[in-house]
Each structure stands twice: as C-alpha cells, then as structure tokens.
Amino acid sequence: MEPIDTLISADWVIPIEPRNAVLQDHAVAVRDGQIIAVLPQSEAAQTYTAAEQITLASHVLLPGLINLHTHAAMSLLRGLADDLGLMEWLKNHIWPAERRWLGSDFVYDGTLLACAEMLRGGITCFNDMYFFPEDASRAVRAAKMRATLGMVVIEAETAYAKTVDEYLNKGLALHDELGDDPRIRTVWAPHAPYTIGDTTFEKILTFASELNLGIHTHIHETRDEIEQSIRQYGLRPLQRLRQLGVLGPNLNAVHAVHLSAQEIADLAAFGCHVAHCPASNLKLASGIAPVAGLLEAGVNVGLGSDGAASNNRLDLWNEMRLAALIAKGAAENPLSVTAHEALRMATINAARALDRDSEIGSLEVGKEADIVAVDISAVEMTPCYDVASQLVYVASRRDVRHVWIGGELLVEQGKLTLLDSHAIRSSALRWQHKIAAS
Q1: How far apart are CA 237 and CA 273, in angstroms?
Q2: Cβ(61)–Cβ(269) under 8 Å?
Q3: Is 311 helix (H, G, I), strand (E, B) or coil?
Q4: 326-347 pLDDT, tens per residue?
Q5: Half-sphere exposure of residue 251, counting CA atoms within 13 Å on the CB side?
Q6: How many whole angstroms separate alpha carbon 406 and alpha carbon 404?
Q7: What is Dmax (Cα atoms) for the chain?
Q8: pLDDT per residue over 354-408, tens digit each?
Q9: Which of 35, 194, 244, 384 is the most buried if burial means most Cβ atoms within 10 Å?
C-alpha cells in the first residue's frame, strides 16, 4: 500500500479533463499538495493508505473555480451606487470614493473580504486588477489562495501613482518582490484603451515582452467607448490595439461585449482570451457579449465576476448559470453554452487564459490539489439526472461544503478554517461607516 496525505472519495467527480467526463464512485489521491491519482474508490482502497481519508456521500468533486476578472478590494464599495450606467457609476460615484479612501489599508481589507467570499464559493484563484497590488498580495497570502495580480497602469493621478512611469516602476518592483511565489503571479493591467494612450501601450508591450507577462485590460465594454475611440483615433479600440501589436495569446480581453464578425475573427486568429462577465454586463446595461460566436470561432472564453461594486457578488455559480442561459437566448440555440462548457469556462478555460493550465483548472495527475466539494443532497437539488446540469442550473455557492488549495482544507462544512470571518466582517463594517459618512 502506498502512503499518501489525503484520499477524498465522493459519489461523483467531474475532472473537467477529459471533456464532458463524469466519474461515479471515484476518489482523488493527494500527496505533497498535488493530485497523484483520480481513480475508482474500490481501486483506491487497494492502492493507498491515507493519513486522512474523507468520504463525501451525495457530493461532487471538481477543480477549484477561477475568477478570470475582478477588482477584489472594491468589495468594500459593494452596493454603494447601484442601478446606474457605467460612466455615471464610475465618474460620479466610484472614482470620487476611491479618491477619498484608496490606500494600502483599504486594499488589504477589501481584498481579504473578497478572498473570504470567494473561498466560501469555491473560487481558489482569481485574476485581479486594482491599485496597491502589493497590499492585495498580502491578503492573498493570508488567505492562502492563488491569484494573478494586475500591475495597474492608467493615465490618471491616483493615491497609488501620479505618472505613467510611476505606475510602471511600481509594477516592476512588485514583479521583482513576488519573485518565484508559487501561488501569486503578475500581469500588466492597463485599465482600458480609453484611459491609455499609444505611447503607454508601447511601453507596456515592451515590458510584457521582456518579462514574458500577460496583459489584462477592459475592452469593448460599452458602445460609448467604441464611439469615443473612433472620434479620437479614427479606429475602434480592438482595431487600434491590433495596430499597436497588443493582440496576442498573452491578452485577456475583459468584457468584449460589442464585437463585429471581423473582431471575433481577429481575437481567434491572434489567440486572445476573453473574460466574460455576464452579471456585470447586465447590471451596468453594457450589453450581451456574443459568446456563442466567440466559442464557435475558437476563442478561449473564461468567466469573471468583475468587482463587487458592479456585480454585488463574487459568485461564479451565478456567472455560470447566466453565461449558459444568456448565450442560448442570444443565439437562439440551446446548445450554445452547455453545462459542461460553462464548467470549463469557470475552470480550465480561465486557467488557460492565465497560462496556469499546467498547474490548475482540472483534476489531473500532477496538478495542484485545488478541489471543491459540492453537496447535492438538499431537497431543492433533488432529483438529479445529470450532475453537470445540476451544478450549473441548480447549485449555488451555498452548496459548496469543502475547499482545498494545494491539498490544504480552507473551507470545511461551509466555514473558513483559516480566515476569521468575524474579524473580516467587523473590518468591512468599519469601512462602511466611514464611507457612508463621507
């Protein structure tokens, strides 16, 4: 018998790879934080002796979910200004609040709040874009999560930096500081084409090439953004980025709502990735992204929540259901985004967009043991004829019972094992009172 650290057995395992697989009465064997086998329970019992053996009846195991786009610290602004269009929301409410309160403590506390919410919902890794990423990294480490942190660049003075060069230099310093951290990576995060000039994009491209880093930017979120670009540059934003050389397999294009057929073809031809944020797009009335067309063209599409200020929740279960339903309705095709495809968008597709699919995104031998257990025994989850459909169309984040990252149990029976929920909530309430009084 081979000794291992943990053997997790469940009624079903959805490993994501191979595609559409649903394994019944299987187990996942973990040693030194990595998956060493996914095999039938009967075989596991004859092969391994585990220091810890966990049996979860009426549960489904799947890889940790990956939030491909968020602004984690903005969880402290949740519900501050609802039912508004994007630019009114930004210019009249969010940006003024940030000018007043943005700082190291705000980002650390807000990111830790976001980490607690995401962990409880089965999210084990997220792709963030916000100021003071060095303080976000402290929160990520405290939560023992994985994250790709955006080194933000914007042509505007903020509490974080005053000039483009200062943003760039701070990003480079963060990249050097994080070094070989196995759980936290960095990407360049130019805010959007409407806040970044050509010269700045060229500088970012140079650094991205030298350091082999990705680029994470908002693009084609609203029609106004496109019209503004045509007035200023004579080009649609994606046309402009293509001319500048930004399009490529290291680009995460966030939102990508308003796309022509040629722009979809360009995203596919250049190997770009799209972070689809259906709830935020709907709430800000930005529109409906052509997900069916993107997938048909071969574009890799992952799911993001956007920030809690524009979505109100960092909940990939909600995003999966919305993504599947909206795509079907928009394309008038019930096969546009199947349940299995929605699960891939929240796992392996997002991992591929972050160039982390060799380590996370599926339950495969050699990958990190980032595992989520979902309980489907509740009356509202009964009956269950198709496990994948049940997860996407019925389950919610409240059904997540256990979460492991690198084999370490960080959520047990729906409760955080490491983070102090009471302290995090108390900190968030203190911020609420200060922000509401200002």
Answers
A1: 16
A2: no
A3: helix
A4: 999 999 999 999 999 999 999 9
A5: 29
A6: 6
A7: 70
A8: 999 999 999 999 999 999 999 999 999 999 999 999 999 999 999 999 999 999 9
A9: 35
Question: In the block, which residue shows the tokens 């993107």?
Answer: 294
7 within 8 A of 48, measured Cβ to Cβ? yes
| Residues 6 or more apart whose Cβ sits within 8 Å of residue 437 | none
Structure-block tokens of residue 58:
């009426």
> Between the CA atoms of 404, 181, 111 and 30, what dihedral angle is there, to the nearest 10 degrees?
0
Kindly write down the DSSP assignment for every residue of 368-406, as one continuous string. B--EEEEE--SGGG-S-S-HHHHHHHT--GGGEEEEEET
What amino acid is encoded at 320 in this protein?
A: M
Contact 368, 406 (CB under 8 A): yes
**Please, are residues 415 and 119 in contact by the beta-carbon 8 Å criterion?**
no
Structure tokens at 67: 């939030």
- The rounded distance, in Å, linking the Cα atoms of 200 and 214 is 16
- Which residues is 126 bridged to in the sheet? 67, 147
Element (H, E) at 221: none
Q: How many CB atoms lie within 10 A of CB 130?
A: 25
41 HSE (CA, 13 A, CB side): 15
Count of alpha carbons within 13 Å of 10, Cβ hemisphere only?
25
How many Å apart are CA 205 and CA 224, to the nearest integer?
26
Compute the CA torsion angle 362, 365, 368, 371 (nearest 10 deg). 50
Cα–Cα dist 1/322, whole Å: 45
Other C-beta atoms lying within 10 Å of the C-beta of residue 437: 6
* Residue recorded with tokens 């992204």: 289
Q: Shortest CA distance to 154 belongs to which of 82, 211, 81, 90?
A: 90
